[in-house]
């Protein structure tokens, strides 16, 4: 029997209220000098090991929001990231803008990535491009995830040199910040942007110059150090942008 419009309206309202109540994590309120770096779209066979080496040398830990398909292709990297003490989160199966998909496909994107991550999934989900509606958020929450956005970006999906990335990152490194970076680009508007050299250089420099002042920890560790700050984070996604992606 088809649902009445009134039932649909009530269901839609409940869904929205529920998703809003859960909110989307953007940062943590804390006085401690701790920051969470996050790296999306990997793992990448060349870049991720180089990044792991930089983090190891600086005794820093990070959170990797992995794309399921890439994780399935490189299970050894998933293991390596986990063994080094980093956290691993779900970034969908193959990086679509979830609001553009049908509900069943959204659920599958989240589930397939979780399966690819095996037991290393720390229960955090980051929607590709940060695109989210209450319905896609609820799909993640229903599968047991906490949705994580960010408080700082460096636009490292473009081809800025390291100095430009650093100029954006330095003022954003406040206690409790969650920083969005990429150890791979699953999609891009220009293949030249796939070069992660500037991001690696910026991370190396950032960790060196903040050695005495800040500790870099995973998002789950950050959550244990303060109070989660959440936002109503909804973006429908830019169809025009999606069409330009390779
Ligand atoms: Zn991404």
Structure notes:
This protein is of the alpha/beta class. The chain has a single domain (23-244), classed as Glycoside hydrolase/deacetylase (TIM Barrel, Alpha-Beta Barrel). The chain contains 10 helices and 10 strands. The chain has helices spanning 5-22, 47-57, 68-73, 75-83, 103-117, 134-142, 162-169, 197-209, 219-223, 239-244, and strands at residues 24-29, 34-40, 62-66, 87-90, 121-125, 146-147, 152-153, 178-182, 215-216, 227-231. The strands form 2 sheets. Strands 2, 3, 4, 5, 6, 7, 8 and 9 form an 8-stranded parallel beta sheet that branches. Strands 1-10 form a two-stranded antiparallel sheet. The protein is globular and about 60 Å long. The termini are far apart. The mean pLDDT is 93. Bound molecules: zinc ion. Zinc ion is lined by residues 40-41, 91, 95, 128, 186.
Task: Please summarize what this structure is.
Strands 2, 3, 4, 5, 6, 7, 8 and 9 form an 8-stranded parallel sheet that branches. A two-stranded antiparallel ribbon has the order 1-10. The protein is built from 10 helices and 10 strands.
Main structural class = alpha/beta
The poorly predicted ranges are none
* Number of helices, where a helix is a run of at least 4 consecutive DSSP H or I residues: 10
CATH topology: TIM Barrel
Question: How many E-type strands?
Answer: 10
Task: Produce the secondary structure layout.
Layout: H1 5-22, E1 24-29, E2 34-40, H2 47-57, E3 62-66, H3 68-73, H4 75-83, E4 87-90, H5 103-117, E5 121-125, H6 134-142, E6 146-147, E7 152-153, H7 162-169, E8 178-182, H8 197-209, E9 215-216, H9 219-223, E10 227-231, H10 239-244
Parallel strand pairs: 2-3, 2-8, 2-9, 3-4, 4-5, 5-6, 7-8
Antiparallel strand pairs: 1-10
Helix pairs in contact: 1-6, 2-8, 5-6, 7-8
């Amino acid at each position: 029997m088809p649902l009445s419009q009134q039932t649909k309206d009530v269901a839609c309202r409940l869904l929205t209220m529920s998703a809003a109540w859960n909110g989307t994590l953007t940062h943590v309120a804390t006085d401690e000098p701790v920051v969470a770096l996050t790296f999306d779209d990997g793992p990448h066979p060349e870049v991720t090991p180089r990044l792991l080496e930089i983090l190891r040398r600086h005794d820093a830990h990070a959170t990797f929001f992995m794309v399921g398909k890439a994780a399935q292709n490189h299970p050894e990297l998933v293991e390596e990231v986990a063994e080094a003490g980093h956290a691993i989160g779900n970034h969908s199966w193959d990086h679509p803008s979830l609001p553009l998909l049908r509900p069943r496909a959204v659920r599958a994107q989240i589930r397939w990535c979780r399966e690819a991550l095996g037991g290393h999934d720390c229960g955090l989900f980051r929607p590709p491009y940060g695109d989210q509606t209450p319905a896609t958020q609820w799909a993640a929450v229903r599968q047991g995830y906490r949705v994580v956005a960010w408080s700082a970006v460096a636009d490292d999906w473009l081809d800025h040199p390291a100095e430009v990335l650093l100029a954006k990152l330095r003022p954003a490194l406040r206690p409790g910040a969650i920083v969005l970076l990429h150890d791979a680009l699953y999609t891009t508007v220009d293949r030249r942007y796939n070069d992660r050299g500037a991001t690696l250089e910026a991370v190396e420099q950032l960790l060196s110059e903040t050695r005495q002042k800040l500790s870099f920890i995973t998002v789950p560790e950050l959550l244990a150090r303060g109070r989660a700050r959440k936002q109503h984070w909804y973006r429908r996604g830019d169809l025009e942008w999606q069409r330009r992606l390779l």
